[in-house]
Amino acid sequence: MNSNDIKKGFPPNIPFPRELEQLIDWTNQNGYPISGYFELRAGDKDTMFYWFGFRDVDEKLAQFGAGADGSLYCIWDAGDQSFPVVHLGSEGDGIKVLAANFKDFLRLLAIGYGELGFEDLSKPPVGSEPNLIFQNWVKSQFNTNIPTNGSEFIRLEENGKCQFANWVDHVCEKYN
Question: What is the pTM of this model?
């Protein structure tokens, strides 16, 4: 995978994070698994149509990854100059904000959850081992730490900082 493949699916109003480009380079050098069942996957103009059933959200979401079940990992244009990383479950569930930015998404990903969009992030991962090479890369490349669980990321949704699920509900009601 190269960054141009993923960039093609990004609308012009959503910036392509430098950290995503670095993750693509890391994956090309180290392979999979990165963490859990997460994989880089480029979106296209039909991805959001198939998930939502209409095209009116194409400029608001940029897919960059997917889970084994077809869940989508996207960057969302929240309309307030923020671009959080979000999860859209393949069956219309697991709709949530995962991280306020891509660097924090990498920190969350490095914890080692199998299914980020469906796990209890208030607890350490169960049944999956973190990729220590990936963890060490995230720590050194971005001069950060890796938490033992995703509690700090849960607060994004609880505090109402990002209302992604409400936005999804609103656009589904509006266009369906």
Answer: 0.92
